[in-house]
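hey all, quick one before standup. I had two proteins in the batch that finished overnight and I want to keep them in one place so we stop losing track of which output belongs to which input. First protein below, input sequence then structure tokens straight from the run.
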Amino acid sequence: MNKLVYGGIGAVIGAVAASAVFLALPDKSAPAEDDAFVAMQPLTEEEQAEEDRFLDLNLGAEDAPAVEPLKDAQNVPYYTCEKSPELVAYLGKKGNAIYARRAHLNSFLIATNVLATKDCTCTGKMIPASTLIAFETRMMEAAGVTDLEDLVTQNYYDEARVMSWQIEELCGGPF
């Protein structure tokens, strides 16, 4: 019986000692109040302009200029159109910066082509890889960059989104 009592007392003393050590440790989860905003620096003029552009961006369908729907449109959604092997190879694998930039430019070219030709079929929604390459080259030269990763293409994608609402109205169905 004495062994049981001594064992119980030892367990209680051990638990009290462990909790005292735990409670004495400093709290690392909350940052100190005085250095909470040290990492925040004022935005540069360029960063502020980009932030303002983002905040002013209003890409709702109601902001797209109205177009007259085609009476005899044969709309085919883009995702159902078969892409040429050359275009698929040129776009590359999804999930990297090069693919994203090329996809932005491709979306812009497709939307521009559909609105210009009023062709809502796959023919109007497919751009040859050579056209995309030529457009990409011109945009890089105009921007003065030699690496596609340095080319800012978000504005082309934003414009393509606005045009896609016009295309849906023009073609009478999903882009």
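OK second protein, same deal, sequence then tokens:
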Amino acid sequence: MKKDIHPKWYPNAKVICNGEVVMEVGSTSPELRVDVWSGNHPFYTGEQRIIDSGGQVERFMNRLNSYTKAQDDASKRKTKNLAKAEQRFLKQQLAALDLDDAVAQVLLNNSIVTVGDLATQIDKKPDRLLALEGFDEKALDKAKATLEKAKTDYLARV
């Protein structure tokens, strides 16, 4: 062997983990510092814990939290937009519903001008609608069905 070309060999190099010497081995360094060894590795100890090197777990949790926050914000925006769309739908004129001309005229003559007015009357005071001349049970059922279909179609476009 040539002299002075090989590194110095330390037959009793200390392996240090968390500030304590855990074993001695042969090495080219006098001491080796390690984060994990068989005495504290979860595989050998049966323990389940997350070893965080470089903040990876924290970064992942931050990313996960931002994703869930974005999902919550998106659902809030969607709910808000849906409520606005429903208000726009209710403010439309009765002509948007394509009711029979005779039924539409009866409603207009009795100051039921918007879709919202008709929806309120159907939900809260259907007897008042049935008391109108020219507006019977059949017209009420058809108005309900037309209103629901128009509302579903309108909100589906939003």
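Flagging for whoever picks this up: The mean pLDDT is 87. The beta strands are 10-17, 20-27, 31-34.
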